Amino acid sequence: ESERGDDDGQSGGGQTGGTMTFATEGAPKLFDPFYATDGATFRTSQQIFEGLVEFKPGTADAEPGLAEKWESSEDGKTWTFNLRKGVKFHDGTDFNAEAVCFNFNRWYNQTGAGQSPAVTGYWQDNFGGFADGKTPSLYESCAATDESTVELKVTRSTSKLPDILGLPSWAMQSPEALQKYKADEVVAQGDSFVYPEYATEHPTGTGPFKFSKYDEANGTVELVRNEDYWGEPAKLDKLIFRAIPDETARKQALEAGDIDGYDLPGPADWEGLKSAGHQLLIRPAFNIFYLGIGQKNVAQLRDLKVRQAIAHAIDREALVKQQLPEGAEVAENFYPDTVTGWTDEVESYDYNPDKAKQLLTEAGAQNLTVNIYWPTEVTRPYMPSPRDLFGLIQGNLEAVGIKLTVVSKPWNGGYLEDVDSGKADLFLLGWNGDYNTPDNFVGNFFSDPNNRFGTGNSPWGATLSDEIKAADSEPDADKREQMYVELNKKLKSEYLPAVPISHSPPALVVTKDVSGLVASPLTDERFDTVSIASS
Amino acid sequence: MKVHFPIRRGVVLDKTVGYVYAVDGVDLAVRQGETYGLVGESGCGKSTLGRAMLKLTEPTAGRVVFDGVDLSKLKGEPLRTMRRRMQMVFQDPMSSLDPRQSVESLLVEGMRAHGLDKDKASTAARLRELLSAVGLPSTSLRRYPHEFSGGQRQRIGIARALSVQPDLIVADEPVSALDVSVQAQVINLLEDLQAEFGLTYLVIAHDLAVVRHISDRVGVMYLGGLVEEASSDQLYATPLHPYTKALMSAVPVPDPEVEDLRERILLAGDLPSPANPPSGCRFHTRCPWRQETLCDTERPELREVLPGHRVACHYAEDIRDGRIRAHEVKAQLVQDDWDVSPDSSLAGPASVTETLG
Amino acid sequence: MSTRTDKIDELSARAADDAGVSLAAAAWRRLRRNPVFLAGAGIIVLFVVLAAAAPWLAPHDPSVPMLGDQVVKARNQIPAVQDGHPLGGDQNGRDLLSRLLLGSQQTLLVGVFATLIGLGGGLLLGTLAGALGGWVDTVVMRAVDVMLSIPGLLLAVSIGALFAQPNQYTVILAVAIVQIPIFARLLRGTMLAQRHSDHVLAARSLGVKQRAIVFRHMLPNSLGPVIVQATLVLAIAIIEAAALSFLGLGNPDDRIPEWGQMLGQAQTVIDSHPQLAFWPAGCIIVVALGFTLVGESLREALDPKSRR
Amino acid sequence: MALLEVRDLSVTFHRRGEKSTVAVDGVSFDVEPGQTVGLVGESGCGKSVTSLAIMGLLAKRGATVSGSAKFDGTELLTLSDRQMRDRRGRDLGMVFQDPLSSLNPVISIGLQVTEVLERHRGLSRKQAAVEAAELLDKVGIPDPKRRLTEYPHQLSGGMRQRALIAIALACRPRLLIADEPTTALDVTIQAQILALLAELVRETETALIMITHDLGVVAGLCDEVNVLYAGRVVERSGRHDLFRVPRHPYTHGLLASIPRLDAPKGERLSPIRGSVADNIPWTGGCAFAPRCPHAVDRCVETTPEMVVDQVVEGDRLLRCHNPVEPAGRAEQEMLS
Amino acid sequence: MLRYTIRRLLQLLVVVLVLSLLLFAWLRSLPGGPVSALLGERATAETRERLTEELGLNEPIFVQYLKFVGRALTGDFGVSTGVQPGDSAAEIFVQRFPATLELSILAIVIALAVGIPLGYLAARRRGGILDNLSVVSSLIGVAVPVFFLAFLLKQVFAVDLGWFPTAGRQAGGIDATRVTGFFVLDGLLTQEWDAAWDALRHLILPAIALASIPFSVVFRITRASVLDVVDEDYVRTAESKGLTSPVIRRRHVMRNAMLPVVTTIGLQTGALLAGAVLTEKVFAFPGIGQALALGFERRDYPVLLLLILCAAGVFVLINLLVDLSYAVIDPRIRTRGVR
Ligand SMILES: Nc1ncnc2c1ncn2[C@@H]1O[C@H](COP(=O)(O)OP(=O)(O)OP(=O)(O)O)[C@@H](O)[C@H]1O
Ligand SMILES: Nc1ncnc2c1ncn2[C@@H]1O[C@H](COP(=O)(O)OP(=O)(O)OP(=O)(O)O)[C@@H](O)[C@H]1O
Ligand SMILES: [Mg+2]
Ligand SMILES: [Mg+2]
């Protein structure tokens, strides 16, 4: 029996109308994507808001959004965006160049709690500092040259543009609503932050769905169709996101017909869900799972041979086959092959315990004793079951004679903290890509030599950092690609700061009545094309 | 001697808001070698007095002088050593014997505590001696209290008291838990032991007949105070206190002829609460001989009316000589609600164990 | 004359046949005939034997994924029943039967140690409070009240969650700590009752030293209910340890198998591979039932009220 | 015809897994209207069980009752549960030993009195309350109106027992069974209660069965006395005769072992040896034999029958092979 | 009675204060916490440090505690970092408490409605088939882990048979007005019958699972106490009055036998809260229990702190209520307790 409303009788052939209930892991923290860091918020905001740039459904590639087209200056420091016309915010105000600049200035002019890494982490990762100039910023200025043209100036060329503008965080919000509901009044309170009315109750964008209500007691967010959408209006009357934290509970809710689909089915359930007639939509893998090697504490780990031995010791094929879902692949680079600069010419460390032992002997590290960290109480798309993955890796490493001191800590209960502070010699971690540039991966990992891998402890740590920055700043696309290819090769053969293990695809599942949903590698599916057959 | 139990209640900290006057100004002497009997109705403070005399309950005021030593000043080790000389026999022969100790260890325990078990042989001999003194077979040593009948258990209790060769034994209702047919055995035993070891007894009982039978002198208690004291014959022959008279007349005698002829003094009403004792003479609320005002306001002293016969009554002589007539008494209400500590019943989870976590 | 005494002896022997048996002996006699007790004791003995013999009984090493190559998460494949693996394998390709067998060790250890620690702590606190009374009693009991004011499992879960690095010992400790106040309170109650009992008074009036009174008289006589409680706590401890594992707060290292953890892990595949959940669940239920049956029948047997 | 005729009443208790015990073993006695009959004996001799069997209050399971108890010609033992309920409280009243535990602690005294009036006399709440106040007044409870609204714990022991008596007498039963009604009370209160009972019985012509272990109580109150030992009546007689010339060694022993307030001092008590635990079953002989100073071989060979005593005058029934010689009688008379 | 209540409330306050200090110190001394929760895997050592400083987490614990108490007095118990990030802990409590209360009440009602009559019948037919069966089943009820039972119930009645919903408090499509936060009550108040019915259907399975332990306890206590009471002298007195059996059962047996049951109900709230952690997790029921489970999983310290304190407070408070109601039911305490 379905919980969907009974009001979808008028819809012909299930094309328009109806309500869809989609279960997610968590409830959104807030609805202002600028302040958000959590997936649940982004999922909702993706339906309500649009950015200048959007990602093409099913890929991580940028395509025009609210900007119909754009171009950059030679030096890559000035970007001109031509805006779509006739677009209105949900509150009826116009979307125009001024609104765009209003948004940029809002971001750039954050003060107080708005500058906390916990609040505007994305801005600081992507654009750097704020107007107060304490930290250099990528952003320089925004000017509305006319009603529908925006000129964006940045302080240096970066590979990230324009793709980063497709991130949900940089979605366009109604200046009027932002002001009316005091959107910037975020304050630190106790151990956390309190967000203003705008962020919790009045998100106002241009997207195909409008915010209707958030029933916190029940953990459901209700969105309704934006009838005045500039493009093709959404098919669904109503879209409901419902938080069901427990994975098994999500599955059972689907089986019982309480919901129409849910996010992140456990890999073990995929087969069952499919055979029960549901549609399993596998997202292209856009992540990386690696075995991190910390070079801070154990001198032997600074020896490339030892790190290579570790790479040879791990049976990645078996790991992928046994533990990872359908579509998972062994990783050779530090990012998936859809990202620029990916190359298969890297040194691939095949599973070879004998070689590993030999390398260890050569390095005089037969008695290598290291700690190995693995996280409990967490699943990540790149790491569906840390315990099982760890089990295999542990077996592999022990098989070549490495002595392991196992440390398991809860993800939020010390694991990340310890890993980040360099306590871990070996550790399991990974990354979900935000957008399609190499810098989003390798830049994140290694550009700061004082990273969790402790590359700063090796002579090449600083070099690596410089190489990454250079590649990122290269305005010429072809040159840039070549630089990344080289970087990837060196990362594997000369540096090997970690062993890339796998890319594994997350999935979502919907009932057979649902059509039009396109799985996104960035896990930011849009539901405006979705329709549901009345049952 | 006074023993007052505080009644505590309060909001945050307990404070004492009243006292139970369990024993209130009792003054008595037990002579060496005699048996002193103490009677009174339930709750009148007999046991408390007995315990306070052995310093098992701390007296609120007053002193106990035992063989020239002031017990109230004793503490710790000297008190412990002193205890050897004064022992107690309890009412309930079952609950006063640790069910997990064999008779042997029950008996040896006290001897050990006072260094009386010097060597195995002498201890064994002493144990046999004790058992034969109280008339138990020597095979009893290895057995446990529950394997004995009530009378036998009481014998074990007596043997335990004897084990440390005491001078004084306080027997708190030693026979009232026993079947009528067995009572006599224990009473005889107590008498025999006294003759044999020259013990001094303080026997507490509510049965006047038993007390009179066993004692040389008898004290009658009413509501925390001693109302009359005399040699047992004299007490029976000429009870002077109205309460004693009433008590006497209330004891049924297993002889129809006597019963048919007897003139009863029926007391009206019940024993008042010791937490809120009547003013003046404690007995005035039920006394058929009560006289206006004096009895209600002034508490009579225990005074010697005849040689060796002390009475706490303002009008003892007048009553004896018939100068005052008995009159009818209207029963008064006695509210029985003073012995409450609210926390005992309201203290929340008393049976957490029942809830399984 | 002699014939008469003989006859009397014979007759009274017959009459007294069932009179005058000790509390413990009487309890034991009732227990021996109580099917509930027998069933419970049977279960416990069986599992204790299994646990003790597990290293020899288990056909394989429970920590080695010897059937690992038959595991394909992507297709939800888990090694099926096959030669040498009568119950098949688990999610990681380890022999299920061996894990179940070895798991009994862990589960019983958790139960037993949690109970022992709880009992020990409770015994210490309860004895202190009950024997000394006064301010010690007040302080200890207020502390116990604070602990009792958090619901049991919640406390265990909090403790379990709040250990920086959960492992098998933290589970034991978490479950044990919860039991301490319960035992303490129970013991203190009985000890207090003992303090005012006639036989303790008698010992006191004999001049027996305080320490001897506590250890020879009060404690032994207070232990009955505590022992009964301990039996029940064993069952509770096993279930609570399982709940901790279910909440993901158990021992994260699963090379040493434990039923609660096996059950917790099997949840995600319960509809496709129910055996992974049902075996450990069944074992937990049966063992917990065993202890509960024994505990309840002990309680009943020792309760004088039930002897009608 | 007697008001109550008990014939051969036996009660056997069965417990799973244990030997069944015969608590009452062929007890017979009669009670006439207005008469007070005493049942005396030591603890556990079957006094209470006898009374409960007559009242039909023994648990159906676990207890077998045989024999007959005819009340006014009606056989009580075979009455249906319903019929029995109609009689209890109306024709048959009962007062129990422990006045505190015999009153329901959570219900007001008033309701406990009125419910029986409502049940058997069909009175309304109001009428019953008025009647109840009168009843309490009659049994000597001061301020009865207020007492009706109070709860048992608020009354003193004596008052509770009075309340129980009021309940038992509420419907003017023709037979009242009092099972140790004064044992839990102090002597002065006991005297009040006994006087009250005696007065009520005299006033209302109610037949009274008085159960007690206190020979003194029996001596003051009963017309006829049955002495029980181990579930059987061992001696029956009018009270004057019984106390003057006890014939059964047990009765004799009892009388000799209690200290008497009026006896001269210094006399040693002569206890019965052994204790109740030394009983032997009646099947093989006399249950009292092990403790009996008069026992002869016959006592353990054949069970003595209840026979009319030929030696002393009066209706005396006796169950003994070797009774105490009335010689003791002269001795006793001399002493008194 | 009033003084007694005040006294107990003061005790409660002390308990909560002591507990808050202990919990606070403990939570703060642990690794992880708000910083990890807020930053996730994006964190770098540097941002971590910055945030730690911003949030004042580098100050001495007692300073932090005093600040916390200061804020707590204004009703601010901090903001959730993991359960419902961004919502204040107090808000989460207010939102979720009615859910758990609703669930617990239904569970207790089920436990009492089944446990008491069954306990009475089992006691009256002691040793009979019904007695043995129900005793054994109550023992099994204790031995089966609550979460497993919840799981089975859900699989069978919700997933396979589809009789009940599997998760949550209310179906997505139902447009219910919220008044009190108690969904069933809200539905009745606003006369949105479908919402009320739907909310009730969501409650049934979790409530049954949750009721399993209180049921066992209520059943066994009722049985034991009926067994005790029927042997009491006053029941014999009642029989001797010739009262009819319904009157005896109601007035004399059950009224007394219920006294210990009432005490247990209070103690059961503890078990219920614990059970709710497990049941709500299984049924994705957005109540206190789920928040606790999530809080543990995601190390949401502000929420944990508040919820554990509240749980303790509620537990103590309910026991106080039970004790007071005990006094109302039992005149022995009522008449003596009043002063
Ligand atoms: N520890 C105590 N705290 C408060 N009151 C007490 C305590 N012990 C005894 N009392 C009260 O003191 C009074 C005297 O008690 P005591 O035991 O001495 O009486 P008794 O004469 O021995 O009575 P009984 O014949 O019933 O044994 C009683 O009212 C009793 O309730
Ligand atoms: N319900 C029962 N089940 C088994 N045995 C019982 C039961 N009730 C009484 N008895 C036994 O029957 C015998 C007679 O008991 P009863 O209560 O009649 O004695 P009593 O003469 O009234 O003694 P007391 O003076 O102690 O009241 C005792 O041995 C007792 O153990
Ligand atoms: Mg006493
Ligand atoms: Mg009796």
Automatic annotation (TrEMBL), chain B:
Keywords: ATP-binding, Nucleotide-binding, Transport. The keyword Nucleotide-binding applies. InterPro entries: AAA+_ATPase, ABC_transp_ATP-bind, ABC_transporter-like_ATP-bd, ABC_transporter-like_CS, Oligopep_ABC_C, P-loop_NTPase. Signal peptide: none annotated. Residues 7-248 form the ABC transporter domain. GO terms for biological process: peptide transport; transmembrane transport. GO terms for molecular function: ATP binding; ATP hydrolysis activity. PROSITE patterns: ABC_TRANSPORTER_1, ABC_TRANSPORTER_2. It holds the Pfam family ABC_tran. NCBIfam families: oligo_HPY. Belongs to the ABC transporter superfamily. This is Dipeptide/oligopeptide/nickel ABC transporter ATP-binding protein.
TrEMBL record, chain C:
Its main location: membrane. The keyword Transmembrane helix applies. It is found in: Cell membrane. One of its GO terms (biological process) is transmembrane transport. Coiled coil: none annotated. It comes from the Bacteria. Signal peptide: none annotated. Residues 104-295 form the ABC transmembrane type-1 domain. One of its GO terms (cellular component) is plasma membrane. The chain crosses the membrane at residues 36-58, 108-132, 144-163, 169-187, 226-249, 277-298. Keywords: Cell membrane, Membrane, Transmembrane, Transmembrane helix, Transport. It is a multi-pass membrane protein. Belongs to the binding-protein-dependent transport system permease family. This is ABC transporter permease. It comes from Actinophytocola xinjiangensis.
UniProtKB/TrEMBL annotation, chain D:
It comes from Actinophytocola xinjiangensis. The keyword Membrane applies. It is found in: Cell membrane. GO terms for cellular component: plasma membrane. GO terms for molecular function: ATP binding; ATP hydrolysis activity. Keywords: ATP-binding, Cell membrane, Membrane, Nucleotide-binding, Transport. Its main location: membrane. Signal peptide: none annotated. This is Dipeptide/oligopeptide/nickel ABC transporter ATP-binding protein. Residues 6-255 form the ABC transporter domain. One of its GO terms (biological process) is peptide transport. It is a peripheral membrane protein. SMART domains: AAA (SM00382). Belongs to the ABC transporter superfamily.
Automatic annotation (TrEMBL), chain E:
It is found in: Cell membrane. Keywords: Cell membrane, Membrane, Transmembrane, Transmembrane helix, Transport. It is a multi-pass membrane protein. Pfam families: BPD_transp_1 (PF00528), BPD_transp_1_N (PF19300). PROSITE patterns: ABC_TM1. GO terms for biological process: transmembrane transport. Residues 97-326 form the ABC transmembrane type-1 domain. GO terms for cellular component: plasma membrane. The chain crosses the membrane at residues 103-123, 135-153, 199-219, 257-278, 303-329. InterPro entries: BPD_transp_1_N, MetI-like, MetI-like_sf. It comes from the Bacteria. Belongs to the binding-protein-dependent transport system permease family. This is Peptide ABC transporter permease. It comes from Actinophytocola xinjiangensis. The lineage of its organism: Bacteria, Bacillati, Actinomycetota, Actinomycetes, Pseudonocardiales.
